[in-house]
Amino acid sequence: MGHWANVLLLAAILCSYAGSLQASRDKRMAAGTDVAQSEVPYQASFRLIEQDRHLGSGAILNVRFIITQASFIWKLMRTYPGQPLSELARIRLGQVELKSKIDDRFYTIYSHTYHPEFDFEAARNDVALVRTREYIDFNRFVQPIELLSGPIPEGSLVSYTDWGAEKDTAAQDDYKEKLQKLDARAISNDQCKELLSPWDLQDLVYDTRVCVYTNGTGSICTGNVGGPLVMIADGRAQLVGVMSYVYRACNSLVPGGFERLWNHHEWIAEESSVNYSDTNFGEMCRVVRNVAAQILMQNKETIRRRRAIRAAKENSEA
Fold it and tell me: In this protein, which residues make up the domain named Peptidase S1 (predicted)?
């Protein structure tokens, strides 16, 4: 938060100076735990506009771009042929509840871009970028996530977040009311292939995939799409991958496959850059001032709590 605080506060000063998929879907996540709203400010929910139904997840990269699973967008477009994505879905940010509220913030989809080597049949290079029409308002519960630029060590603790149910066939009403988190360990591709060999699935472990394994404590299931795989490094959440492939749905002894984003770092950075040549700087400054105000308020609240704790300690010692 410190790095972003400095950047956004500086930007605020400069601104002042300048002036249905389907009615029923398969089970999604087993043995997940509820997530607090402040834990995952980068989480995005793609919602079917007509019924406001959760379709898939993604993660915020910056003020204009959400990263998600290419296969998810590809299948959605073919489920509703002839309709542009902007008329099918919208993006909700800053919430962990499955059902939307009247004051939730939604963003219009402007465009989407598949990885140039995306292969739906093979689920290769399974990543897409979705651009919002409006600038995303950052606040305490809406923040971008840093993209990991290099590989993660084998055995690293990672977390996956999405909404889910606890039954084999689930309608929307069966999904958990709050966002779910599943903790796992990243494993090597060789170990992943070995674990998948009893089902002859080892050839589906590509070089651009990162496998995660819970060793029986939980599972990622069919229907989990586009959600972020995150690790904590240097005290910061960093984006490792997006959900891509379920080798054996809902089996906690089988690893799950994610698109390895550090392999695509250059493409993601280039495609998600924000072109400010046609920027409405009045709108941009409003967004930045809002973020700066949120950060200052959080800092004041932190100072207030520290003073209260110190005062209570002094009173107890008196």
Answer: 29-273
